[in-house]
Amino acid sequence: MLKKPILASAFLLLTLAVQAQSISPTPDQVKALTAGWKGERFPDGRPKVPDAILSRLKNISMEEAWGVLRNKGYQNQYEGEWRLIHQDSVMTGRVVTAQYVPLRPDYQDLVKETGKKEGRVQAGGTNSWPIDVLKEGDVYVADGYGKIADGTLIGDNLGNSIYAKSKRGVIFYGSVRDEEGLSKIDGFNAWTKGQDPSYIQQMMLSTINYPIRIGRATVLPGDVVLAKKYGTIFIPAHLVEELVLTSEVTALRDQFGHQRLREGKYTPGEIDTKWTPAISKDFLQWVNSYPGKLPMTKKELDDYLKERNY
Length: 310
Prior knowledge:
Layout: H1 3-20, H2 27-33, H3 51-57, H4 62-71, E1 78-79, E2 83-84, E3 91-102, H5 105-117, H6 129-132, E4 138-143, H7 156-166, E5 170-173, E6 175-176, H8 179-183, E7 190-192, E8 194-195, E9 203-208, E10 212-214, E11 217-219, E12 224-228, E13 231-235, H9 237-263, H10 268-272, H11 277-288, H12 298-306
Parallel strand pairs: 3-4, 4-5, 5-7, 6-8
Antiparallel strand pairs: 1-13, 2-7, 3-9, 3-12, 10-11, 12-13
């Protein structure tokens, strides 16, 4: 006789929990999650890292980016061993997160009802909802908890929609279907844990733009991702510009060091340790006569070097 009241109470508690946590956080909640960012933001609260920084980030190596983050105390921002559609593609962008969980009918009903109240599209599956919020420069990043068969979050139809909105691809800790069709979308790429011809079933979307786990990494909405065939690094928005400049200077120092070692001007021990004033002076002269275009402005470089004891 107590079963119905108990089930009713449990359902009520679940309803209140879902109503208290909408599908997406409020802009103020996103701002609280990303409080270190002091620049421009999107209406949903996510940091709007400039396109110019995203472009420069493409030239940064995974090791350089990871090294900067590790030195800042962020040691859980990398995930590797991905399957790529196009192996030599590099992608950077601002992260939109999505969380998927194994299907639970009562929870799914409440998620759909919550989405209906929020004005989300009711036709089709809820796996289209993250796509609806994408803007150009966004990367759709989803935790599909590693499910491959029946865990295909998109096929080529949704892939076309994603690229039309974001001009980017996807990163899924899960799988896709129609990989052959996806490969034909010019400019699109996908970092996944697998592919399968099955369609999505027995799994459901739970949230958009809340923190998620991607393998070894914790990912927040508004993070900036650097994705290469060597792995993916999720960078807190407030660290991106410093990471790019630091990595660019490191690359210049490496280029200078390699050149001087080939010339036999210095020994490996001299280059691999703290530089002497003479080597530092030589580096600055080398930079001033750099034959190509520097990745940063001369002012950025000068200001950066003033604060470093090179």
